[in-house]
């Protein structure tokens, strides 16, 4: 991706990203072409390739943007604990449910999971008590990261029919 400060290039990048997201509403990711993204964005292919190397790079940029937004929201928590971190997680993803559903439909959930896993491992004290250097704690951390992620995917598949607060309450009872 072109890391420019040029306002015109930044606007083109936003249009390209939005064109990809809009097209993903209707088509599987693997069927989307750069030409189609450019048509939707009303930009030419040269502009696309001036800013990105591939459609995958566009998607990765959006996921990085989501992770930055999540981190910013997480850092605003006064005193993060299991409850506030869990609630924030589901509140955040509720705002991006359509994107998650599109990723599920296209079989691309792992794109976001990899970033989520990296973040969660850096905040492991919210999922396990004590250091993760202990072998049993490493497995417990992996179990909880995967569990969190799969609960979110199940919640999205079911239409997020319960509130983030209710889901947090359910998970903290376990």
TrEMBL record:
GO terms, molecular function: DNA binding
Top-level taxon of the source organism: Bacteria
Keywords per UniProt: DNA-binding
Q: Which residues form a coiled coil?
A: none
Q: Which residue ranges carry the DNA-binding annotation?
A: 33-52
Q: Which residues form the HTH tetR-type domain?
A: 10-70
Keyword Transmembrane helix tagged: no
Q: Does this UniProt record's set of keywords contain Ribosomal protein? A: no
PANTHER family assigned: ACREF/ENVCD OPERON REPRESSOR-RELATED, TETR-FAMILY TRANSCRIPTIONAL REGULATOR
What is the designated name of this protein?
TetR/AcrR family transcriptional regulator
| Taxonomy of the source species | Bacteria, Bacillati, Bacillota, Clostridia, Peptostreptococcales
